[in-house]
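Figure 2 data, in text form.
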Amino acid sequence: MAERRILRLSGADTRDFLQGLVTNNVKKLDQGLVYAALLTPQGKYLADFFLVPMGADVLLDVAEELADGLVKRLSMYRLRADVKIEATDLKLWRGTGEAPEGAFADPRHPALGWRLYGETGGDDGSDWNALRVAHCVPETGIELTTESYILEMGFERLHGVDFRKGCYVGQEVTARMKHKTELRKGLQQVEVTGSAPVGSEIVSGEKPVGQLLTQAGDKALAYLRYDRASGPLRAGEAVVVWPGASD
């Protein structure tokens, strides 16, 4: 399992501070975990994370590789707000079987099980890549990069964005993509015969149409340009079939 860092945000302004920054509605913390992202003002992805209710405080569960940059960005936005951001010794344990006491359901999809925060880190041995591919769930640093737009990555389907919550950083671009345009690119599940390294270019003939990303057996996640992803597709030596392609 990729390393996670668990941060603690405390102070009287914590929830209002987060509400003005992240893609989801922080008020949903009253029901459990909140999956959200922080975007650039231009609407591109910076980090995705889980917000965790912990009494008056909020824990932030983020990939270790993004943690330092996220703390720096949050600190920049903090200004005079009564918010303290600090590291914790908490670890993440996750699984897909019966949830232990104190665990939270993963809000992205029921198949992704639960997340528990405490002294022990790790997981129950579930095949997380196979689960992600089966349910088209992007992963930090693989499908989700600084070039990503969250709607192309399925954040609406994964309960990671709220279009009624009000303003947040990058909200204008995200709302425009939702209401005024038809997505021309995005993350999709594809069928694969053979294999190719993560990030391999997918081509139709000589024409690039996307990238092959996480593969699990004969299925994979791919970032595709929809208007080009037709006909026989290849990624290196692998044959790729997108079932959603038009004839």
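Caption note: The radius of gyration is 19 Å.
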